[in-house]
Amino acid sequence: MRIQKIAICLIAFFAANPQVEAAQSDYELGVEQYKKGDYANAALSLDKALKANQTDPAIWYYDALCYHQLKNWALATSRYKTLAKYYPNTPAGKLAIAFLKKHDPSFVETVAATPVTASTPLKKSDNAAASTSEKLPTDESSNEEDELEKELAKLPDKAHFYFKKGPSGHMEVDLLVNDHPVKAEFDTGASAFFYSDSLSESGVDLNKSKQGRMARGWAGKSVFTKTMPAEVKLGSMTRKIDITIASNSGDLGHNLIGQDFIKGYQYEIDDKGGRVDLKKILELKAKDVNPLYDIPLTVKGTKDYIPIQINGKKVNAFIDTGSFATILSAGQAKLLGLTFSGESQKLMGVGGSVTMDKAYVDIQIGGLRQSNFPVLIGGSGGCAIGQDLMNGWRYKVDRKNKLLRFFH
Question: pLDDT band for position 112 (50/70/90)?
């Protein structure tokens, strides 16, 4: 009798409150947020949905769309590749393949040569959501290149700025943001990352900032950010760029200026002289390349990767002037068979701190070798070459000719 009364009460409650419905799934919430343009929160919801269900291409597709809109090409491409490999015959898979044909054609060729024996079809309820009516965002890469070319035409052919080495070897610089003095670190592993309290203390008006993408550092923790157009002056160059703004400076404590500011330029770092020279990208003649001092470079998004050798084994690492140490992920250290020394070190970064183990290795970049060199192991950022390895060298990152060039 008591159960019947409770049931009657519940029926009456829902009848009187038609707006009360079953809780949305993470997937449904993510799609709703995506269609409202709330891409950062949509990505969080869809990432949760993927943890619960990795066999629905609709979830993979919308998650890819979120990161595409946020211009996080690494995560967007990763999701598109999953769709192309495992769900090539679904509407979502076909759209993913269309994206990859433009941005990673070698991967599409590999997938085409590999027969797929089984792929889970889209559920009927999700078919409309991931059909061709939900098309890829406009591919802005060619437009961005045109805009960059127009912008570079108005900027100087050469520029330079000076830096001071901080306590941990960071490259500390003084710049102006909308004519207000701000301290930052030159970090080639970052874009243009600032903290709201630091900018406010300097008098920068943040009223024009709007919701931005998620940011993540070595600690692996994602943080919410805002974005805002700003005029940034560093050394002899002034440039209008979009800056990323986080609210909590307790995580890292210093602002970062990097790839967004030097886009379209090759940069030459004189570590001893404390100077960075910028020069518009030019062609290089093959005869001028020295294999001992000119290292092949691969550009992925905002990061510059080069091949290095650790204990005789090849590893791809990105150049990170914002890191005082050379770092490897735990997975890479395991593959290389590294032995921990028993020492550890705490590293601060975007999203908080992470404690890393230390190992000693033989390391080689081109013709440059160091033995018994300390590296840190941990975090979620892959493999990075830090200030400790580049200390004292004068070198140029030449994106046009895809080379890291040491002067000798």
Answer: low
The CA distances from residue 288 to 237, 292, 395, in Å, are 29, 12, 15
In this structure, how many other beta carbons lie within 10 angstroms of the beta carbon of residue 86? 18
User: What's the sign of the alpha-carbon dihedral 332, 334, 338, 343?
Assistant: positive
In Å, how far are 22, 26, 69, 328 from 19, measured between CA atoms? 10, 19, 31, 51
Mean pLDDT computed over every residue of the chain: 78
Q: What DSSP line would sit under 270-326, residue for residue?
A: ETTTTEEEEEE-----GGG--TTTEEE-EEETTEEEEEEEETTEEEEEEE-TT-SS-
Q: Are 357 and 339 in contact (CB under 8 A)?
A: no
Pairing of strands 265-270, 275-280: antiparallel
Paired residues of 346 in beta bridges: 355
For residue 296, the cross-strand partners are 403
How far apart are the C-alpha atoms of 50 and 56, rounded to whole Å?
A: 8
Q: Is-contact 386 327, C-beta < 8 A?
A: yes
pLDDT, tens digit, for every residue of 57-99? 999 999 999 888 887 877 888 899 889 888 888 888 888 888 8
